[in-house]
Amino acid sequence: MNKVERVKAALAFEPVDHIPVSVWMHIPSVDQDPKTLAETQVEAQKAYDLDFIKLMPYGLFSAQDWGCQVKFFCDKTHPPVVHKTAIDKIDDWKKIEVLPPYFCSWGKQVLLARYVRELVRDEVPVVQTVFSPLTTARKLAGDRIFEDMKTDPQIFHAAMEKITETTIGYIRENIRLGVSGFFFATQCATQSLMSDAEYDTFARHYDLRCLEAANQGTWFNILHIHGQKTRFAELARYPVQALNWHDRREYPSLKTARTLTDKCLIGGMDEEGCLSKGLAQEVSREVTTSIQEAGARGLMIGPGCVAFPDTPAENIRSACSAARRFLQ
Q: Is the pTM of this model over 0.85?
């Protein structure tokens, strides 16, 4: 099997020659240069023989062009952080406008997709990172969004419309460049942040519009459910082909997830624990145990979120080897 065939088989719960595996991490030393970032990601894919590439834009790219001031460090282990939020009062949401996907920070990530696609062509599936509109809003303003949506829903919805339109434009531009799909990340789908009604009103509607666009011309869309006490069962019904979450640290386990969804699962590695801090043999055992719990079909091995930038190379190799040995 080649990598595209293997990933497609896993998504369809068909037999594979080995469990597909990938690892992704932020690369803050080069992530302001899309060409160098593309070359670095492709080098890592080749070094570990990864079955797909999850593109790694810096985490604040979707907020910077609307005025979020970002502090960059450009070293291996220190990702960018918010220096000053773009939204400091409710009326600041009125400044949000629809942005084109091919300029500034959004455009850099489109270039990243273009450069990676040129390097791997159709030999390796490539998924582009996209944040849910509410996640981008939170990056713009911080946790004040949960008050702003109650204080003036009309103003907040108007801003969310603009964020969503911009996100959809970015999705379409990446599809034009031939990505296999998207890694749709939500950092707001936790039960502690919003009521069910608020989530339906301020998140779900916008999420589904983005995913509708993402499914037009792609085949490998992953929902990443970030955080603790997530709305897993609810979001598992989203129109994606695969699910990714902190399965080694948070509910549900891979075994339990099998009872909650018929979608392909991506996980099995604790990026904050064994993968980054354990020994290579411990990583191998964790991957093997994860496959035994989830079953070999409809499964890919990956971290529950971004791996630490200083994750030992021998641990990544051990994870990949364990996934490849399981069916042999």
A: yes
